[in-house]
Amino acid sequence: FSLPEQVRHMFEEIDYILEAQNADRFAALYACYP
User: Which domain of life, per UniProt (predicted)?
Assistant: First the structure.
């Protein structure tokens, strides 16, 4: 791994974590709608 590749990979993982949090929030907000 080169350093720029490691940094890019780290940001991709952070992005997946944020996406999961957004999905959880969306599910909670719209849980009352079938």
Answer: Eukaryota
Residue with tokens 């952070």: 14
Query: Mind spelling out the 3-state secondary structure of 1-34?
Result: CCHHHHHHHHHHHHHHHHHHHHHHHHHHHCCCCC
CA angle in degrees (0–180, nearest 5) for 17-19-12:
55
The torsion angles phi and psi of 27, rounded to 5 degrees, stand at -60, -40
pLDDT in tens, 1-34: 688 998 999 999 999 999 999 999 999 999 998 7
